[in-house]
Amino acid sequence: MTAVPEIMLNNGRTIPQFGFGVFQVKPEETVAAVSTALEAGYRHIDTAEMYGNEREVGEAIRKSGLDRSDVFVTSKLSNDAHRPDDARRAFDASLEALGLDYLDLFRIHWPLPTRYDGDYPSTWRVLEEFYRDGRARSVGVSNFQPHHLRRLHEEAEITPAVNQIEVHPYLTQDDVRAFCAEHQIAIEGWSPIGQGQVLDDPEIVTIARRLDRTPAQVVLRWHIERGDIIFPKSVTPARIRENFDIFGFELTGEDVEAISALNRNQRFGPDPDKFDMVPD
Ligand code: NAD
């Protein structure tokens, strides 16, 4: 099996293009799921304070016996911690829960433009502190639209290394991807298989049959060939392995175009300009 490609970030560090996401993985299922993923060869884990499973992610990494430097570990700031002092406390708590002294990547989870007086630049400046003190090897954002990124560009010093946004065949995000490409911000695509809702699409099913692959593998491969970073989620061991087994085949250019043409600008998740959920 061919190795997972590494993507070069704008600060010279690299990130494995493929990883394992743990959104909606219950804490009691997390150690088993992450352990299965690490055994299958995944070396990049995407969690968040709001997923409530950082402690178990850390436990699975320690149990694996892998060196810390062999696993790319990322998390995200909770929506309830955008004020600078809260963000500092929240980052300390994330490291403590994971049992780590640094993260490979830490992000603002949502811009929350209708909360905190819309002042996400002041939150970003706190992530810059974590980057400067070395406890976050890279810092980035999530769910930022081009106009949010433009504001950071004007008011902050460090350009985010990544922007993690919803991307799948029904939401190809051409405008955000083009903006980020122009500014050397890598794209991470969340819900890469649309939480399973794109897998019955006749176009995808036809390509999968021709290649003797599953629809999930075809869609994940489509992201890889477009250059985005992805981390599908599953708690089912067979699917965790199936999703990783995408480095021994390729799509044709026509396949990639045909899947991109399925775009309907359809979000399965919230609109970043409106989303304002803050946990209790
Ligand atoms: P996903 O697109 O990875 O879909 C996961 C679901 O698809 C699973 O629950 C399962 O039902 C199904 N599935 C998985 N593998 C399958 C297979 N081989 N065949 C058939 N069905 C399969 O969705 P996701 O979990 O929403 O996104 C992946 C990761 O992205 C998350 O775990 C999280 O790390 C991240 N994420 C980030 C944000 C954000 O706001 N930044 C939001 C959502 C997700």
Structural summary, described in words:
The protein is α/β, with parallel strands linked by helices and 280 residues long. The protein has ten helices and ten strands. Strands 3-4-5-6-7-8-9-10 form an eight-stranded parallel beta sheet. Helix 1 packs parallel to helix 2, helix 1 (27-40) crosses helix 9 (237-244) and helix 7 crosses helix 8. It is globular, with a radius of gyration of 18 Å. The N and C termini lie far apart (45 Å). Residues 21-23, 46, 109, 142-143, 164, 190-196, 199, 216, 231-234, 239, 242-243, 269 line the site of nicotinamide-adenine-dinucleotide (NAD).
| Percent helix range | 25-40%
Topology order in helix (H) and strand (E) letters: EEEHEHEHEHEHEHEHHEHH
Q: Give the N-to-C terminal Cα separation.
A: 45 Å
What's the average pLDDT? 98
Provide the descriptors you would attach to this structure in a database record.
single chain, 280 residues, alpha/beta, 8-stranded parallel beta sheet, two-stranded antiparallel sheet, 10 strands, 13% strand, binds nicotinamide-adenine-dinucleotide
Report a brief summary of the structure.
This protein has helices at residues 27-40, 54-64, 84-98, 120-132, 146-155, 174-182, 202-211, 215-226, 237-244, 253-260, and strands at residues 6-8, 14-16, 20-21, 44-46, 72-77, 105-108, 139-142, 162-166, 186-190, 229-230. The chain is of the alpha/beta class and 280 residues long.
List strands and helices in order, with pairings.
Layout: E1 6-8, E2 14-16, E3 20-21, H1 27-40, E4 44-46, H2 54-64, E5 72-77, H3 84-98, E6 105-108, H4 120-132, E7 139-142, H5 146-155, E8 162-166, H6 174-182, E9 186-190, H7 202-211, H8 215-226, E10 229-230, H9 237-244, H10 253-260
Helix pairs in contact: 1-2, 1-9, 2-3, 3-4, 7-8
This protein binds nicotinamide-adenine-dinucleotide.
